[in-house]
Amino acid sequence: MEVRELTCVACPMGCQMTASIDNGVVVSVTGNTCPRGKKYAETECTHPVRPLTTTVKVDGGKHPVVPVKSADAVPKEKMFDCMKVLNEVVVKAPVKIGDVIVENICDTGINIVATNIC
Amino acid sequence: MLKYDLVVVGGGPAGMAAALKAKECGVEKILICERDETLGGILEQCIHTGFGLHYFGEELSGPEYAARFIEQVEKTDIDVKVNTMVLDITTNNVVIAINKQDGLMEISATAIVLAMGCRERPRGAISIPGTRPAGVMTAGTAQRFANIDGYLPGKEVVILGSGDIGLIMARRMTLEGAKVKAVCELMPYSGGLTRNIVQCLDDFDIPLKLSHTVTEIRGKDRVEGVTISKVDGNLKPIPGTEEYIPCDTLMLSVGLLPENELSRSVGIRLDKVTGGAVVDQYRETNHEGIFACGNVLHVHDLVDFVTQEAQTAGEGAANYILGKKEYADYRIHTKGINGVRYVVPQRISMDGSEEPVKLYFRVGQVFTNATVKVTRNGNVIYAKKKRKLAPGEMENIVIKPEDLQDFSEGDYLFIEVEG
Fold first, then answer.
1. Which helix (H) or strand (E) holds B410?
2. In chain B, which residue's Cα lies nearest the Cα of A7?
3. Domain boundaries along the sequence of chain A
4. Which regions of chain B are under pLDDT 70?
5. Is the pLDDT of residue A13 over 80?
6. B385: buried, middle or exposed (CB in 10 Å: 19+, 13-18, 0-12)?
């Protein structure tokens, strides 16, 4: 049985949690104060994911870039691959909040969406 | 002269929430003055997520959080003047503002909500020795360059200060291909949220050097490197511990200062610890009819709490404007002692209100398994165990109305940490 100490990043509370892992399966989580913490610990110990936020270039917008986010958290090890794709993207203004900028980025099944108007 | 029931100075999250709440409470003529070109304030450049978990129950980016309030403001008849700088406020509640379209304006207001936010401490505020090359900037300036203007402000970066903006920028720069060589923190603990240390530094193996500071900046035109040193218990650099780190950028995340020039000029009393106004539970300052909320009052770590506080101020201003407010017979004081650095509100107006009073406070050091206690005249009226208390995380407690009976003018409520 492996025991891991974790700081939850699900919200700014940052709960200190302890997860017990048996054969690659999380069997218990303590220290969390909400169900999101338990979910975070289980994911973190098996296949860690992170929300990705960055900007992409805009053609003809109010600003040269518009902020975007991954609609859901992406696998941690694919963050830099996603950045590589997003650094090449140029979108045409106008952009609205929620517009899909890249579909299924790096085959993660996750879309990149705009988080501001431009 | 223009005439408004309420003038809100600042169109960030605090200003918008205060104006919207006042509107909801029945105030008719409201004006928001914003010096930037859009509403939203600093949220517009905070493109990371983590906003709105408390208030909306979902995780939003800064611009998304701001947009929800901007849309609401646009649906009301609240007047908004952007690109408008408030220059002064007179003692009879006249706001002096200027912009390109209207020129110099005198705006008479029944009540005013101050929501100017805060700004970052710059290099000059911490006196770092060395040359004065380009490439020394606050983390917030770098954030604006990267997230709004589309520039990468450096390639090899050292960050001084582990406040949240510094941590967020460490990740942002790394994702954009820059190398963040170290984050130095003068104190033996970080000033940022723990989650940000985990997901902004640990995730990318960026070293956090606690009890370290920058003791020299080198470079002629552009930063070429910085010398960092370990500090002792009195925060003085220890000779012999110097380490030179080549870099082209030094980012500073060394604290935020409420921006209270306007408050000072109208004679509002400021709290030496928060840097913001001394207010009561309605966020009214010592100047009748002038309220303050958000980061201009005290620096918050979560915008959700800014929104809540601004709604309190907006409602307070509305009650004042509509004549619904009982004049307080007297006021009592709150005070942080034994590990509690400050408490907001600093005073409680005793006006016979039956409402509970929420006190926000910050501790001065890290505590684990400690008890937060509130006492009056030596009697404990509130006690709660806390697993962890840290300077970077604002706490709050609620005082029940029955515990606020039978006070005399000038009495104190003490908030302290035990253990």
1. none
2. B195
3. 2-46, 53-114
4. none
5. no
6. exposed
Name the residue facing B47 among A9, A55, A97 (closest C-beta): A55
pLDDT, position B39: 97
User: Which tokens sit at B109?
Assistant: 């207001």
Helix (H, G, I), strand (E, B) or coil at B403: helix
Res B328: pLDDT: 79
Q: Tell me how far CA of residue B44 lies from CA of B13, B65, B89, B391, in angstroms.
A: 10, 9, 27, 26
Residue B14: both structure tokens together: 């605090």
Question: Which ipTM value was assigned to this complex?
Answer: 0.92
Do B193 and A7 make contact, defined as CB atoms within 8 angstroms? Answer: no
Q: Are B47 and A80 an interchain contact pair (Cβ–Cβ within 8 Å)?
A: no
Query: Could you tell me the CATH superfamily of domain A53-114?
Result: CPE0013-like (3.10.530.10)
Q: What is the DSSP string of B205-241?
A: T--EEETEEEEEEE-SSB--EEEEEEB-TTSPBPTT-
| B82 class by beta-carbon count within 10 Å (0-12 exposed, 13-18 middle, 19+ buried) | middle
How many other β-carbons are positioned within 10 Å of the β-carbon of residue B90? 12
Q: Do both B172 and B264 map to the same domain? A: no
Query: Looking at this protein, which amino acid is placed at residue B171?
Result: R
Q: How far is A25 from chain B (nearest CA, A)?
A: 22
Strand, helix or coil for residue B261: helix
Could you tell me the residue range of the domain that residue B416 belongs to? 328-419
Write the CB contacts of B130 (distance below 8 Å, at least 6 apart in sequence): B216, B217, B218, B226
d(CA B289, CA B112): 6
Task: State whether A116 and B67 contact (CB < 8 Å).
Answer: yes
Task: Write the secondary structure of B275-287 as one string of H (helix), E (strand) and C (coil).
Answer: CCECCCCCCECCC
Answer yes or no: do B317 and B347 share one domain: no
Structure tokens at A21: 């892992």
Which CA distances in Å does A78 have to A42, A84, B175, B286?
19, 10, 11, 54
pLDDT of residue B378: 83
Q: Are B143 and B190 in a shared domain?
A: yes
CA angle A46, A47, A48 (to 5 degrees): 110
**pLDDT for the residue A12:** 66
Which of B51, B54, B147 to mutate: most A Cβ within 10 Å? B147
Neighbours of B324 (CB within 10 A): 11
| Tokens coding B153 | 């402000």
Could A83 and B44 be called an inter-chain contact, meaning their C-beta atoms sit closer than 8 Å? no
Binary contact (A115, B63; C-beta < 8 A): yes
* Pairwise CA distance, residues B291 & B284, whole Å: 4
Chain B contacts to A (CB-CB under 8 A): 44, 47-50, 53, 59-61, 63-64, 67, 146-150, 172, 175-177, 193-195, 197-199, 203, 301-302, 387-388, 393
* Residues B225, B260 within the same domain: no
Q: Looking at the complex, does the CB of residue A60 fall below 8 Å from at least one CB of chain B? A: no
Residues 18-47 of A with CB under 8 A from B: none
